[in-house]
Structure formats: structure tokens, C-alpha cells
Give the backbone structure.
Amino acid sequence: MLDGVVSRLREEARETGERRLLVLAGEPDRTRSLAADALDAAAVDPADATLIAPEPVLDCDHLPPERSAELLGRTRDAVVLDLHAACGPNVIGRAVGAVDGGGLLILSTPSLDDWPDRRDEFDAGLAAPPAEVSAVTGHFRRRLVETLRVHPGIAIVDADEERVERDGLTHPAPRLPREPVPEAGTRRFPDAVYAACLTADQANAVEALEALDAEGSAVVVEADRGRGKSSAAGLAAGALALAGRDVLVTAPAYRNAAEVLARARERLADADALVDVDDPETPHELRAPEGRVRFRRAVEAVDLPGDPDAVIVDEAAALPVHLLADFLDAPAVAFATTVHGYEGAGRGFSVRFRDRLAESDFEVTETRLAEPIRYAAGDPVEVWAFRALLLDAGPPVDTLVTDATPETVEYERLAPADLLADEHLLREAFGLLVLAHYRTEPDDLARVLDAPNVTVRALLHDGHVVSVALLAREGSLDAETRAEMYDGGRIRGNMLPDVLTTQLRDESAGIPVGQRVLRIATHHAARSRGLGSRLLAEIRAEFEDSVDWLGVGYGATPDLLDFWAENGYRPVHLSTTRNDESGEYSALMLDPASEAGRDLFERHADQFLSRIGGVLADPLADLDPDVARATLDALDRTVDPELDDWEWRHVASAAFGPGLFDAAPESYRRLTLTYFASDVDLGLSAREERLLVAKPLQGRPWDAVANRLDYHSTAGAMRALGDALEPIVDEFGPAAARTEADRYR
């Protein structure tokens, strides 16, 4: 029974260069046994197959689901994905992406009829306390099963009944051959580089990347997965190194750019120009006689270590905009981005970063790879994955929302049932959420549809989603859970109570209940009109009588801090470590909605003010002064600097006379905090405020302050600090300060 289905499925996949999907549904032991039979029937070499499952039950390469990201960048003849223990959308996406043309993806699943109503380990991760796993719905799996039953190229076998429900055959018409790679013309790279290209698209991308040989050039390479963009970047990197250039390759992590380094290595080796380097300090570095290709993670590469001649940013869509902008300081730069990927969406890159690139001094070249390399165009498994995981979800087209204003929109609660009933609405809402965060993933689709503490709110313009927010209900935790958290236990889905409890040692922080804004996004064609603020105001109006607080946590930038402060949110914490991938410090902010919420906010705002001076002087000494300014400005609190008369005399004499900052730095720190926390406008320039952050608050050395803020000397920076302190002393100083100041006026 199975041999015939699999052999025909495999034969059609090979003839077309496409992939096929085989679903084995039933009891675990039976589906796993049939998976082994299917690999035999398809004549798959065990060395070319990978099993993703908790245990290595098949005779082939094995990866547990939590390590499935290791498949990214790899190509397999067959992947068997066991979904009995957990149905993780991210894992499904990675499995699909690893299967080569002519290959098989085999899913081992529970009975399709029963599967949506079963709860598994992935569901347990969606159940944020106090909710139980029984509160998790099965909407994502119900939709997944529906797509499996209707999409072409998918065979379904009932393993328990030994019955073939679908044979998965598409009987396609004969295909036209690939467009040949164009002959060499006036290209600058060697002919051998283009001989290594597999499609005309890839050759065109490599030719576009020739521009990196000249300063002032920027190249954007866009593609869906499997189109060979990373290989094109690697071929170009190798060619540049052969020409004596120093090429810095970067990405969120090495695995994202491994293909770039692999292709560069091949190019250098084929040219007999690969210099062996055995240096544990540079494990990801390839050297040619005069050039080199080296990798650094994005958060390490933004400072352009070693002054490279060119930078290649792979998986650019998975990086936040501010990091991408830092690479515009390179002499030449390329951004390779996945348009519809498992780790970030190119749409966010194109909407949020392209303007900055266009406004730069670079001459920009753009190219796009459309033709798949690992499998044929129109591959039915890719089409299925795009729909099932919403990899190609996007917001409505610009013309549908261009006229949207706060007065023309309607506030809506988008319940999972509403989203499932309207595919266009689901795609628009999720497409905007993809734009809101550099790491929105397929797992987030399941979270939207199934997590009991997650809800979606949106503004609709003529029925189209123009602004959307993803909310998570947190708190209301029992004493046992709070004690576990206080002792260091991690509690799912309660980020704000978790940080306030574990890091800030407030065991009662988990008692009040709140709504945390996980994501918020407004359509790019309708930004800067107050729609995001309107959405937050509607959310507050809806929840203010049913929760104690509204909150948010995000990678802190000056613009975001200003946005949240304008909408009533106030900071209670800045993380003391950077996010490994974004390079940002995180800000936590609260907007109290009840007496219990105000008690929570007040004690943590007071503690934040007490802590932040010392924190800025030590773990946050490298914080961007503009982020510190925006954070402290958002406090909007009356603070007594609590300076004794002798301290006021010190401060006043440094501002108006011969006093020295270094004699009493703590006094200046407390006074500076008082200034920033108040809402008094004393007319200080941005540069003067940066100086107040860098020296009194962060305690940076005078020479570093002068260099960072472009003062011509340390003496000039010292005089500037005194000038900045004058209006602060006048505003907040008592009689002792005024008396001292009057001596020098």
C-alpha cells in the first residue's frame, strides 16, 4: 500500500524538480514505523535524510525539535518531522526549507480528525499562568489540517486504517527548461565566478554585487528562501577577496551566514588562493594572499572592526532598523534579505529601512532573485507552507488605507474565530504584526490563534487593518507561583511581573493584573497621523476598568521612548544587558489603571529613580546618551536632589565659578537626575543634555566625553558642563546655591 504511494510521489517530485509532502496520520508507533518504510520506498539514502523528533527512532541524522534551526542553510533529500509530542510552527517552516527538489517532507501526526482537539507540549508553552493548558484552543492546527487536505502535492495516509486518503499527485504538464546563465560580457569578476551560478537570477545578483568594489556603493539583494541569495553573496565575497578586498560578513548569528562563508571558501579554494589560518581568535575568517572574508555577529560588526572595504549583511530583515543604519558608515555595503522567511520578513526591511538607505549618500543598486534553485518554481510544498504559516502575509495595499485618519477608523476586537473566518483579515492583521518586530515568526501565528492570554485589537479603515496591537494578559498569580518566580523560576507569558519579581525583588508584583502590549504597528502608508496613539487610547478605554495596569517592554530607542511617554506610559526599568541580536537595552514601562496598579507603578518608579544613577555609571555606562535622555525625560516626576548646603556650594561654584566637578561627582549626579525627571524646560540643547548624561550620570572619562561629543578639548567639555549646570542650579537651588552663584555672576 505505502510502497506504491511513495514511489509514485517520489517519481513525480524528481521529474518536476519539486518537493512532495507525505502525511502519516495515526498512533505514534504506527506512523513512525511507516516513516521508516516510506524512506525505504523512496530509496532515500539515510545519509541524506534528517529526522526531527524527540528521540532518534529512525536510522538517519537526528535533530530534536529545539535544535531544528540547525537545518537552516542545509539541504536534505528527505526530512521526517514527528509532530506527535509538539506541533511547533517554526519547526515546520524549518523542515520545509531544508528539503531539496525531488525530495520528500514526511509529517508524522496524530489522526487528523482528532489532532486539533489534542493538547501537546507546544500548547503547554502557550498556556501562560494562571491559565491551564486546557484553555489553549486548537485553531492553528485546525487551519493546518484544512490546508493539508486541500493543497496539491500532499499525500495523506491513515496509518491506523492503512488507507490512502490522498495520493498527492499533481500530474503536471511538462516544464520549460531553466533560463540559461548569460554569457560573460563586461563583468569585472572572473568568469569562474559566474560559471558557479545556477540561475540567471543568481548571475544577475552577483553582477550587481560587483558594485561593492567601489566606495559609495550599496546593493540590496531580495529573495524568498531557496533562491540562492546567500550563495550569490558568498561568490561575490570570494571574488572581492581575490581582488585584495577586506570583506566583513555579518548576520544575527553565524548560522544565518554560513552559506556565504561556504561559497566564499569554495571560490578561494577553486582559485588556489585559500591561505590556511589556524587562529582560534578568528574561527570564521578566510584569507586570500591580499584580501580576506570574515564573519562577525551584527552586534559586534556595527563598529566596523578592522575597517573593512565592504560589508555584506545577510538576513538583513532579521535585524532592527537602527542596527542596519549603523552599517551605512561602511565604505560599501550590501543587504541580502529574505522576503518571506522564517526569521524576519523582508517587507519590514523594505518599508522601515529603505527610506534611510535612499536618503544616504550611497549609489544604490537593487536586484531580486525569483527563480528557485533547490526546487522548481511553483513548488506545491512551498505554496502550502506560505499559506499554512502565513509566510507571505502582508498589510493591505497602500491605496486602501492612504486616506485613513483617527476620525475614519473603527476600533475592533479581532477574535480568533473572526480571523479564521476571514483569510484576508487574518493576512492583513498578521502582516502588520510582522512589520512590528524584527523576529515575528510562525510560532506567533499559533500564539495569535490559540494562546488564552493573547488578544488582538485593531483599527479598521473601510474594513482593512490599518493599525494593530497584540496584547498579553499578565499577572493575577497565586502565592505559590509568585514564590517560585521570586526564587528564580521562569513563569511563561508573564514578562513584566517576571522582571519586577526576579530582578527587582518584588514578590507582590505578580498580584495585580495587566495587559502588556506585545506588538503594535501602523500601516506605513498611514503613519505619523496619530493612529497608533488612537489605538492605545481605545485599548486603555476598553481595559481600564478590568485591569490594574497597561504595560510594554521593548528595545529602547529615543523615538520609541518618546512615543510611549506621549501615550502615558512611564519607565520603571532598563535592562542591564543588551539583546544578543538587536543590540538594544530593553525598557519596561507602565501606565497604571487602578489603585493597585498605581501602587505597583509608584514603588517601582521611585526605586528606578533611586537605582538609575548607579546603573548608568556602571552596567549602562555604554548606553546611548539619547536613550538615557529619553528614558529620564519620560519619568515626569518631582524629585528632591537632597543636597546639603555644602554640596549646593560645590555645584554652584562649578557652574558659575572655579569649582571642580571631580570633587563631588555624586552631587552632580543627583542634581542631573532631578533636572531630567522634571518636566521643566530650561532651554538646554541636545548636546548639553548628552553631556549631562555622559559625565555626571555615566561617569565617562573627560577625554572620552570630549571626543564623543566633539568638543575641541577636555577643558572645553568642562566649561560646557558648567554652562549647562547654570540654569539647573538657578531652577532647583536653594539660598545656599544662589549665594554661592552670586559671588561669580
